[in-house]
Amino acid sequence: MMLSAVIATAMVLSGGGTAPAVGTKAPDFRAESTAGTLQLSSLRGKWVVLYFYPKSFTPGCTAESCSLRDGFDSLRTLNATIIGVSTDDLATQQRFKKEHALPFELVADTDKRVVDAFGTGGMLGFAKRRTFIIDPDGTIRAIIEDVDTRRHAEQVRDQLVQLQQTK
Predict the structure, then answer these.
(1) I need a labelling partner for 19 at 20 to 30 A (CA). Which of 28, 68, 123, 145 fits?
(2) Of the listed 26, 40, 61, 144, which one is catalytic?
(3) Domain boundaries in the chain?
(4) Is this model's pTM higher than 0.85 or not?
């Protein structure tokens, strides 16, 4: 296979797209979630922790989601709303939420519009693991690329505390 064909194939498999930068407005979206239709802009006035994960029920994604579940009360005291996004269908997201008693909503981004808007397209159509912290005005204030799935709630809390002290 020629090098250009290999590169083109890799781009198709990875989903492409550029992540919005820190300091820019978060792309608004409207998508189906475990609580019905969710629109990001309806969460203005709160800090939003928008985390993307590849696949429900896999070990890393389960550890990450359960870390956020376990840290939920602590994050809520910082006026944070947590939203998980993967390309799984709504039935899978509902089962994942129920089985792991997740106290936050999950978006079923089967058409990858949210994944594409946030530049989180990954291999084989899955979302890349990445977390955006969005301030109450809708501006992206931090992006966590190096997610520690077992300690993600601590990573998020540390970022939120730091951001809220400087705002």
Answers:
(1) 68
(2) 61
(3) 24-166
(4) yes
Q: Which two tokens stand for residue 165?
A: 């002290």
pLDDT digits (tens, 9 = 90+) for 75-96: 999 999 999 999 999 999 999 9
Domain 24-166 part of CATH 3.40.190.10? no
Task: Give the type of residue at 65.
Answer: S
Distance, in Å, from the CA atom of 107 to the CA atom of 85, rounded to the nearest integer, reads 5
Quote helix, strand, coil % in the chain, to nearest 5.
Answer: 40, 25, 35
| The pLDDT value given to residue 167 | 62
Give percent above pLDDT 90 in the chain: 84
66 has catalytic annotation: no
Instruction: Provide CB contacts within 8 A for 109, sequence distance 6+.
Output: 31, 85, 86, 87, 115, 127
Burial-class residue 42 by CB neighbours within 10 Å (0-12, 13-18, 19+).
exposed
> Maximum distance among all alpha carbons in the chain?
54
CB 56 within 8 A of CB 88: yes
Higher-confidence position of 13 and 135 = 135
Say if residue 145's pLDDT is above 70.
yes
Report CA-CA distances (Å) from 53 to 33, 44, 78, 79, 84.
Answer: 15, 23, 23, 22, 7
